[in-house]
Amino acid sequence: MLTAIVLIDTAPDRIPEVATQVTDLAGVSEVYSVTGKADLVAMVRVREHDALADVIADGISKVPGVLRTETLIAFRAYSKVDLEQAFALGLSD
């Protein structure tokens, strides 16, 4: 599984609409509105490298109101939460 973090700059009056449309794209698992240099952050998870272009260049970038994107490709995940959930599979509290 490949994970990409996509920083999205939008037209200020289109943030909610862009977020909704990006969330509906196949391969996008979450979209967050954020403070800072980007308006939105999308988490993209795909099985093959070529699918990143389908989701980002042919999907996110073409949503009306998207001005530009910056994509960060994840190498490794260091998440205590994910590890705890993986080890707890099938166990009841």
From TrEMBL:
Q: Which InterPro entries match?
A: Dimeric_a/b-barrel, Tscrpt_reg_AsnC/Lrp_C
SUPFAM superfamilies linked to this entry = Dimeric alpha+beta barrel
Query: Which intervals hold domain Transcription regulator AsnC/Lrp ligand binding?
Result: 6-76
* Protein name as annotated: AsnC family protein
